[in-house]
């Protein structure tokens, strides 16, 4: 739209410059400035408008005003193009008409003028009268074959070229009368079939032509009343059907539509008042059920809707406040439970580490070192005898299984595991990871550290 308006303003300036030399011998007709042509844009920021619908309505009004201004300016440009055509400047007339069509392709008069100017420019030996006679013959053929609308359009083309052609005007009046009669006939047929909307559509089309037909106006008014009654009846049936199915909100929406068709209906107002109470009560009851199920957000939503439908605001506000407090308390209890579980886990880990350290100290044996030899520690057997490395051996040398570590290394590994667990509970995954890596280095058999590292990897993706 902005691009078109800029093009239009540029076109208007060009037309003024081009047409200036023509004004003295035969001035181009100009319209006076229309009162209120430009909309007062004091509210252009839209900051003072109250709601979304009001802003939409205002923007729609602005758009309509822009369109009206564009149509006004295009009409002025068209009149200048027509003047150029009448003076035989077919090329400039065609160019101007084509420019109008680039802005508004539905400008039928500009389309006709562009075609006629092109024809006259290309076939200068063909007179305008010959073109008009050919169009009359074509219009007559269309009329004889019953193609009244097309015949009328062909006469419009003639009147575009020669606005004061009395023969075309007379024919057009005759065809307009025939078209109006046809619309009236179709409306009567639809009315007999009780299709009031179709009847009105046809009669309004007839009224556009027969503007001063009091009988047609009276018929339209009576049918409008019948259509309203028909629409109200159908809507009432739909609303009651929704109500019987328990779809109260949908039923209320249909009743609202009825008030727009037939305002002030006391019966409809009574139904709507009753429905509001039932809808509000339904939301209130649903909110109570959700609250008892500890679905506090859902309960708050139901009670908020109940308030919108007319439930006691003070009572709904009290219930909503209670639900929010209950939600907050439940969240605190959950966080406290998580904290206690973490503390219990840490306590168990510390006890396990201590027990492991004590067990390691009890199992530790004294190693006797002999010059030049390394003696294997001996532990008491089941019958009090001493067992060497070949009996119930839990350690291995090269090529063996898991390697036994010293009690000090095992205890240090366990302590590092506990440090990592504390960091993990504080969501410090990197510190936990480093502690558990050290724990593994101290004691490769520390399975708890293995589990911790795998958990960190799952959460962070870091190996």
Distance between the termini: 60 Å
Largest sheet: spatial strand order: 1-2
* Alpha-beta classification: mainly alpha
Classify the helix fraction into a percent range: over 70%
The geometry reads as: elongated
- Record field, number of beta strands: 4
Biggest beta sheet attributes = 2 strands, antiparallel
Give the number of helices: 16
Please state roughly what percent of the residues sit in beta strands, choosing from under 5%, 5-15%, 15-25%, 25-35%, 35-45% or over 45%.
Answer: under 5%
Our Rg estimate from Cα atoms comes to 47 Å
What's the rounded overall pLDDT mean?
A: 76
Topology record:
Elements (H helix, E strand, L loop, with lengths): L1 H18 L32 H35 L3 H14 L4 H15 L5 H17 L3 H14 L4 H27 L3 H14 L4 H31 L3 H14 L4 H27 L3 H13 L4 H51 L5 E2 L2 E2 L4 E2 L5 E2 L19 H19 L3 H14 L4 H14 L3
Antiparallel strand pairs: 1-2, 3-4
